Amino acid sequence: ELTVLGKAQEFFQICDLEGKGFVTRQDMQRLHPELPLSLEELEKVFVTLDADGNGSLTPKEFITGFSRFLLEQIALKNDMMQQSEGEAACPLVCEETMGDDEDEEFQFSNLMDRLGAKKVLDDESDVKQLWLQLRKDEPHLLSGFEEFLVRIFSQLQEADNEKNELECALKKKIAAYDEEIQHLYEEMEQQMKKEKEQFLLKDTERFQSYSQELERKLLSKEQELEQLLQKQKRLEHQCTELLSGKEETKVENTKLKLTNQELLRDLERTSHELSQAQQQLQVLQEESSRLHEEKEMEVYRVTETLQREKSGLLKQLDFLR
Fold this sequence. Notes:
By secondary structure, this protein is an all-alpha fold. The chain has a domain at 1-75: Recoverin, domain 1 (Orthogonal Bundle). It contains 10 helices and no strands. Helix 1 packs across helix 4 (59-89), helix 4 packs antiparallel against helix 5 and helix 9 (205-244) packs antiparallel against helix 10 (249-320). The N and C termini lie far apart (138 Å).
């Protein structure tokens, strides 16, 4: 065990050439020339040792887990050698060893631990029954069946990792959409407040009518924003359902992507209509300025006319005197 522990420490140093203090999946591949294991098997070993699933192994996790893995491999190799010697020397003894329930239970449990089956299987009874049947009736097919299990559990683990990554990305997108919608809602509230204050300064029926029309449009935008919030809630609900199921993950992700695209289109359309409302507001302001200038000109003309009439009346009064 001390030799295996020292070997595990040596393997950790080989993986962590940069001195980071931890080992990743890519670092684990550096053991391929050192061990009679394929890259897929090294990936499986990494997944087994990464109990917390954070994608990295501390020195303690690596050395402890890898030492256990090496001891299991040594024990498995010794068992295979003993079985091979037993078969050559005495077939009856081999049959008795193969039929030992405790030995079968230990080997099957060891196999399931190395494959990481507990992370992806709720019930191992079917696999165990088939493994025991092959071990008893067709032992020459047992190694092929175990290799098949290695590939299957590796693919299941990859699918589970991909699902977790998609769930994490989806949560980030939902948070980003929430922030964007909240920002848009606050901007619209500020714009509404500003436009209402500007329209309160107008005292003509025409501008009051335009103000009411614009308020109706803004109310419509608020309703559209409320609909977007409802869609967002439905999206969160779909995300919750997505987390509870494994088989429909890809289909649900596709639906959610389509829903996100629809939300983006709705947001763009709402932004465009808000821009149009701002342009109308600018037109109203220009119209107000023009009417104000016309009123001032009219007052000036009326004043000038009254001044001329006053001068004429004064001349007539002088003439009459």
